[in-house]
Amino acid sequence: MFIKTRSGLLLAALSVSVAAQAQDYLPILQYHHVSESTPKSTSVTPAQFTEHMDYLKNAGFQVVDLKTALDDLKANKALPKKAVAITFDDSYLSIYEAGFPILKERSFPFTVFINTDPIGRSSRHFLTWDQIIEMQKSNGVFANHSINHPYMTRKEEGETQDAWLLRMAEEVDSVERLLKEKLGVSPKMFAYPYGESNEAVRTLLRERGMVAFGQQSGVVSADSNFDNLPRFPAAGPYANLSTLKTKLNAKPMPLLSEETGGDFASDQAVTLGLTFKEGNYRLKDLVCYVSGQGKAKLDWQSDTKVVASAEQPFNVGRGRINCTMPDATGQSYYWYSNVWIRAGADQNYVDMH
């Protein structure tokens, strides 16, 4: 309702303007190396990274602090329109040498998930605490990526389940102590090494009041699982700007529930059950792709529930199903991904649902 005064009309107009510029979801970009000489599968060159950051700036994206944005989403507080967050995994020196100057020039906030063992050993390819402190003073936030970057869902040879869980707790707790000691604060965020977790590990993080991230692609909203949040990889084969533009404009899949069968795949082909919220969605245009296999078979159980099936079992390692669906405008895609682990016989994975 408009108030018929100059100030009232201005306030009403401002409220409409703010509402039009808000969004209730967040795409998060994931990087590792910024270098021309590191493994291509996990790297962007400085030129590619500059291209990405220039696009964000020129296209009007609002680069936000990850921790603040997640807190706002959980509190159902709107984010700026075209909000996006930037993250790095691991403690690579190239983040400081090549990535940081580009970010600093644009005043973009960013988060680095650090594994602390190579920092403590003064490994020449990794960050130092002095460099981390310097970046912290220019919009850098440093979060937990374990001490040793282990496969967190694997036991060591001869290790009991209790001993494994204690070791995982120390991988988390030791870095939390270091962040507070060296930097004065921890954002209480954790990125699973290799993106792998199980329910015991997720519970461990949840009990510590921490938000955690996997390596499945997708967009974060208040409905997301904050024990295992998605991010979009933006390096290696995913560094192409046209592909990145599609992801930056993606929205969270409007799901009521999902049925994955757990964290682990067997010698049988996986299935994925998705139940959609009521709404004006282009469900007939939903497409799901199985890694290494092409399109999944879609079996609609009802008007709002579908089962996506792979044709073949996954090979040993990580396999995924990615699903996309155009929104009503056809200009953006809803996006969802799930990852399974197909364990090798000698890998000592702990399968806990």
Automatic annotation (TrEMBL):
InterPro entries in the cross-refs: Glyco_hydro/deAcase_b/a-brl, NODB_dom, Polysacch_Deacetylase
UniProt key word Signal: yes
Occurrences of domain NodB homology (ranges): 82-284
Organism: Marinomonas hwangdonensis
Lineage: Bacteria, Pseudomonadati, Pseudomonadota, Gammaproteobacteria, Oceanospirillales
Record GO biological process: carbohydrate metabolic process
Magnesium is among the record's keywords: no
GO molecular function, one term: hydrolase activity, acting on carbon-nitrogen (but not peptide) bonds
Any one annotated GO CC term: extracellular region
Protein name per Swiss-Prot or TrEMBL: Polysaccharide deacetylase
Signal peptide bounds: 1-22
Subcellular location: Secreted
UniProt entry keywords in alphabetical sequence: Signal
Pfam family, one: Polysacc_deac_1
SUPFAM superfamilies listed in its UniProt record: Glycoside hydrolase/deacetylase
